[in-house]
Amino acid sequence: MATFVLNSVNRSARITTKRCFSPHKLSTLARIQDVSVTPFRSATVHRWSSLLGAKWLSRGTGVRFMSQGAAGGHTPGRTRRAALVLVGVGAAVVGFVANASHFRRAEMAAERATQVAEQVDDILEKCKGFLTPPVTDIQVLQENKGDMCTRMEMLIMETQAEFVRALEKVDGGKFKADRWQRKEGGGGISCVIQDSNVFEKAGVNVSVVHGHLPEEAAKQMRSRGKVLKGKDGELPFCAMGISSVIHPKNPHIPTVHFNYRYFEIEEDDGSKLWWFGGGTDLTPTYVNEEDAFLFHNTLKEACDKHHPQYYPDFKKWCDQYFYVRHRGETRGIGGIFFDDLDSPSQEEAFGFIKSCTSTVVPCYLPLVNKHLNDSFTAEEKNWQQLRRGRYVEFNLVYDRGVKFGLATPGSRIESILMSLPLTAKWEYTHEPAEGSKEAAMLEVLRTPKEWV
């Protein structure tokens, strides 16, 4: 069988790593000359899918990634063969180099080359599971695979794909994947479904933006106690995150929101400030003790893996943050919320974010399935519309993410306002009847409870 050999040369030890590819990948790589050194100018679907040995199919408004199995992919066997080639080359070097230290350097170079090949293949394999190519060019991600920005982008792309597929399975409809670019730097992928079978409007958005922090956005950072030292009034930054809001048609299925993000700023002396933020919260139309327990307990278990105070502290923070002050009530029954998380270390903070994103499906999809076929009355639907009005009020008046997005040049308004429901309602001086289910819900919103 014909194979294609890709040479990767380590300049310090002059060791060549031979990588073998299938005939399928031979034909695709042949169309992309010097793929190992030429950066992508645009992450088009054709070139990206060719590199991965995969095929992109568009069906209606949905976007699907169809893997062709092992064709063009990485397998453990190939990695082992590459490692054996490297060991053999390292042994040959010994015959020409008398100094033992030279042999050790060659051996270490061979080990590094093997590790690099495995990490690059790992990124390619993960990308095959995404709904679209990542926001950042795939080769840039490979070249910076150890950076936190790369690792966070891979995490949010993976979370987006997992959640969208879970929602599509229960709804039966297809999300529209809308890719957009920001001329100042970066872009995003908005996956949205509207007026479908189960969900009236649902969005799962990823954004990766970079450039220089505008003054208005910098003021918001300073108001939170951030001491930012820019150069000539400019602050290079990189921000990325995933944000989702799900508005179901059935008033007995709660609305859910989650957002997890990473922010990095480079100061005038070249040092970097970084922090994570985010949270998950639930907004039901009616009180359901079992639902509230499942939701909060799932979040608590994820928090407890990292620190016993995370859940109680972040639950309280959530109740305080998602508070509609002019109404004197919370937006929903809470969850967790945190910001400016920069301790105990970057690695441990990232580990916590990974635990949080892993709760997205198990804390919400059981609730959707549980109430999927619940019957409801016109009065219950009307109450849902009124509660959505409160949701809109919070997002437009208080939400920090919306404010930051609107203050950032080049932001995509459609993606920022994706969180708003398709329909909502405002009635003048509406008050639920005493002793009603609606009044019970309002009481919980005015006096937050401990659900776990």
UniProtKB/TrEMBL annotation:
Keywords: Heme biosynthesis, Oxidoreductase, Porphyrin biosynthesis. One of its GO terms (molecular function) is coproporphyrinogen oxidase activity. Its EC number is 1.3.3.3. GO terms for biological process: protoporphyrinogen IX biosynthetic process. It catalyses: coproporphyrinogen III + O2 + 2 H(+) = protoporphyrinogen IX + 2 CO2 + 2 H2O. The keyword Oxidoreductase applies. The keyword Glycoprotein does not apply. Pathway: Porphyrin-containing compound metabolism; protoporphyrin-IX biosynthesis; protoporphyrinogen-IX from coproporphyrinogen-III (O2 route): step 1/1. GO terms for cellular component: cytoplasm. It is an enzyme of class 1 (oxidoreductase). It holds the Pfam family Coprogen_oxidas. Homodimer. Belongs to the aerobic coproporphyrinogen-III oxidase family. This is Oxygen-dependent coproporphyrinogen-III oxidase, mitochondrial.
